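Need Globin's 3D structure for a figure. Predict it.
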Amino acid sequence: MEEVTTYEKLGEENLKLLIERFYDLVFSDQRISHLFKTDKELIKEKQRLFLTQFLGGPPLYSQRYGHPQMRARHMPHPITEDDAVAWLSCMSSAISSLNISESLKDELFKRFVPTAMFMVNTETTSE
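Structure prediction for Globin:
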């Protein structure tokens, strides 16, 4: 018997809702909104393609853009641990807003923590 993927448990509509809510939070978050400089709709579409693949769905991102290479793609943007924590805070709020089980919320969030921390490429400077 095949294991049901996180993508299948979440469903495409909930994924779209997650992305909408997440980016509403990100673009209004003064801690990290400066990291998102390109077109909001393009960012959301790339995220939809990536998360579909990341959560076990079809490899939509790879089909359109090649291997995700997420750390390499994020290297031009200085990302601190504080930025990653702010990103995770926005994601946690977006996940919490979904009408899904608590266990699926936990499963989803746990998938994002190591990935967000892996994107850190700049030390936090004390001001």
